[in-house]
Amino acid sequence: MITLTRPAIIACRILLFLALLVTTYATTAELTHPAVTGVNDKFAHLATFFILSLLADLSFQKRGFDWKVWTPLVFYGLLIEVIQYHIPYRSFSLLDWVADTSGLLIYILAIHYPLVRKLSHR
Questions:
Q1: Which of 4, 56, 57, 99 could form a disulfide with 42 if both were Cys (CB 3.0 to 4.6 A apart)?
Q2: First-to-last CA distance in the chain?
């Protein structure tokens, strides 16, 4: 992982905040067009949480991507599903939360797991 300057870290934190706002809006707004379904929907969840993980990791470099950084993302994904349960035009999906968490886990494996890094340098 690259080391960022203080202004770059602040920019990443702003981007993380904006990404969380956009994600929250996108997951709670009433759909004006047909929703993405099936594999594409799960890929969208996975990609979103991969990007949120990257932004969180870059935003808190001194801390490292420890449980205090990734745990809120896991609960954020669950919170979205709980909120959707209470919105008449949305629905709770445990598989969406699994896809969210999978995006986070893929980020951890791709960026932080030493074996994956060793294999990628061959």
A1: 99
A2: 18
